[in-house]
Amino acid sequence: SLPNSGNKEITWMMLEAGAETDVVNSVGRTAAQMAAFVGQHDCVTIINNFFPRERLDYYTKPQGLDKEPKLPVKLAGPLHKIITTTNMHPVKIVLLVKENPLLAEVEALQKCYRVLDLICEKCMKQKDMNEVLAMKMHYISCIFQKCITFLKEREDKLDGFIKSLLKGRDKDGFPVYQEKLIRESIRKFPYCEATLLQQLVRSIAPVEI
After folding, report:
1. Less Cβ around it within 10 Å: N or C end of the chain?
2. Other Cβ atoms closer than 10 A to 84
3. Superkingdom, according to UniProt (predicted)?
4. Measured between alpha carbons, how far is 151 from 149 in angstroms, rounded to an integer?
């Protein structure tokens, strides 16, 4: 079984070495389900956020009739770092984009978000469907698309995006822009039959901003 007595590093190393995450044990449970069952939530997070680098590297080689790869090799490392982050706060993701000059450009972000959309589609269409990973890829893609808008339209560029995300409304400091961005990304998730999407909508819809 993957989660070894709750040790995050060992879990990560086993995944890096190619351990399968969707294999079930004698009672029909995956490693992540077993880890959740015994309360090892850090291990669950690592397993659910794991995305092997070679699955991303696939897009750095021209496929089929393509002359060019969908993802330039130089962007694979920075994009992989964001894909595997476990901190999903939008400001954290924008900061990860901002700290890498290769990524923080309109053309680079356009290529990256298109690849994320392809990965999202693959996660939903493969036989062992991974809704969590699909939703994560879609969410990061939405944030990249907003980064592009700010890079194109605002003088203060990504700093302006971060300011908008952090700005609280006058009466109680609640970050309305951030809330709307997250809700919009959920609303735009293209696979409306996904159980995870329906759960999210059910829990969010009745809550007023």
Report:
1. C
2. 16
3. Eukaryota
4. 6
